[in-house]
Design goal:
By secondary structure, the chain is an alpha+beta fold. The protein has two domains: 70-181, Uridine Diphospho-n-acetylenolpyruvylglucosamine Reductase, domain 3 (2-Layer Sandwich); 184-385, FAD-linked oxidases, C-terminal domain (Vanillyl-alcohol Oxidase, Chain A, domain 3, 3-Layer(aba) Sandwich), CATH 3.40.462. It has 14 helices and 19 strands. The strands form four sheets. Strands 15-12-14-13-17-18-16-19 form an eight-stranded antiparallel β-sheet. It has a five-stranded antiparallel β-sheet with strand order 7-8-11-9-10. The two termini are 41 Å apart.
């Protein structure tokens, strides 16, 4: 077991920092059990790709990076039981030989599986769920050191609560995912008029397996990205020169130092973005490089109101002359039955707002968040928000049921840090 004393931890963007007394990396579940039994306060960390203080603690920080890999597979059901610390980018090496692939992914694959599941991480697709909804079973290490096997037939209440639980019920140790046979996707990116996108997107979402848009505050064109299943031969993604990340960093730096030029930089979109088409296996097409660091806020808006909400956000950004070069991200996610999933019983349009990591994210988030909340949006658990316990209780019909399960499993609040205590327990 690796041990780091008096450690400093920060998330990917550097915005969240913590000074845990120790960071422990157990190598197996037996070690993990002993740690949970011995320590009064614990937070578990994955890849640090959440933007909220989900894992910030001055107590013990526990990494599952060394409890990784695929434990077993069910070929007939196309399912695999995966250790919770497994990073998404490592999954294909285990799933490829058994002809399995994840149903859906987002465009970042650095997260641990447990972290992605626990926060309701998602990709896009009107008929596709967030990653948590494809969990068929999991094992949960509780505060007492007991391991519970949870599924729709075993401990169904804990299963309904635990697929999106922010690490507050215990430590996920193994997760059984419902997968599908490996498949190739054709990625196509092109520009289209913002007006056309707003008018046709509800129709287009049914014509593609995946569809998303990148919308710039001052530009009348959007980047439209679609992914569709294909049997075509592989045409791998090419690295542009200069790379998209290089251009994004350069434009973000220029906007940071010279805010008035932001609208003119965004007008270069038509010059810099050309139609592109690539074909590859899903695990290679879903993720895109993210080397330009940022902070992010994201809300899930009821699907019928998503376009209206986006339009109001764009008008507000222009009116306030908010200084950010990053586009808004606009995606579709199908509803599910997970108690604290932002998509609980609600097909949603996901609207993400980004700010360059060297700029204060609150200057844009404080402007946009009231609009996202006005449309009854639910925040992504891993992304910045200022929603209150009272608001959350109103947005989640199963909020009190979840809290009852949490209290029963962890009466001493071993797995809560100050952030989660405020989020779950008030102030109201």
């Amino acid at each position: 077991m690796n041990e780091f004393s008096q450690a400093t931890w920060s998330n990917w963007s550097g915005f969240q920092k913590a000074y845990p007394t120790q960071i422990l990396q157990p190598t197996n579940i037996l070690e993990l059990q002993r740690i949970v039994q011995d320590y009064p306060k614990i937070r578990v960390v994955g890849a640090g790709h959440s933007f909220t203080p989900l894992v910030c603690t001055d107590a013990l920080l526990l990494s599952l990076d060394r409890i990784a890999g695929v434990e077993s597979s069910d070929i007939d059901r196309c399912q695999s039981t995966i250790y919770a610390g497994t990073r998404l980018y490592n999954l294909d090496q285990h799933l490829h030989p058994i002809n399995q692939a994840l149903m859906n992914q987002g465009d970042i694959d650095q997260q641990s599986l447990a972290g992605a599941v626990s926060t309701g991480t998602h990709g896009t697709g009107a008929d596709l769920h967030c990653i948590s909804a494809y969990v068929e079973a999991f094992e949960l290490l509780t505060a007492s050191g007991e391991i519970l096997k949870c599924s729709r037939s075993e401990h169904p209440e804990i299963f309904a609560a635990g697929r999106v639980s922010l690490g507050s019920l215990g430590v996920l140790t193994k997760i059984t995912m419902q997968n599908r046979p490996r498949y190739k996707l054709k990625e196509h990116i092109e520009l289209c008029r913002l007006e056309d996108m707003m008018h046709h997107i509800q129709q287009w979402k049914h014509q593609h397996r995946h569809i998303e848009c990148f919308v710039f505050s001052y530009e009348k064109q959007v980047m439209l990205k679609t992914l569709d299943e294909t049997d075509e031969k592989i045409l791998p993604r090419k690295e542009n020169f200069p790379s998209d990340d290089t251009l994004l960093t350069m434009c973000s730096e220029l906007t940071r130092f010279f805010p008035p030029i932001n609208p003119y930089l965004q007008k270069l979109l038509g010059v810099l973005v050309k139609p592109t088409t690539y074909v590859d296996w899903s695990s290679r097409i879903f993720p895109t490089p993210r080397n330009t660091k940022f902070n992010e806020m994201e809300y899930q808006i009821p699907v019928e109101q998503g376009i209206e909400c986006l339009d109001e956000v764009l008008h507000t950004l222009r009116n306030y002359k908010v200084s950010t070069f990053f586009p808004l991200e606009f995606r579709f996610v199908k509803g599910d039955d997970i108690w604290l999933s932002p998509f609980y019983q609600q097909d949603s349009i996901s609207i993400s707002v980004h700010q360059y990591h060297k700029q204060d994210p609150r200057l844009i988030f404080d402007v946009v968040e009231p609009i996202l909340q006005k449309y009854k949006g639910r925040p992504h658990w891993g992304k910045m928000h200022n929603i209150t316990t009272t608001q959350l209780r109103a947005l989640y019909p199963k909020w009190d049921d979840f809290m009852a399960v949490r209290q029963r499993l962890d009466p001493q609040a071993k797995f809560l840090n100050p952030y989660l205590e405020k989020l779950f327990l008030g102030p109201f």
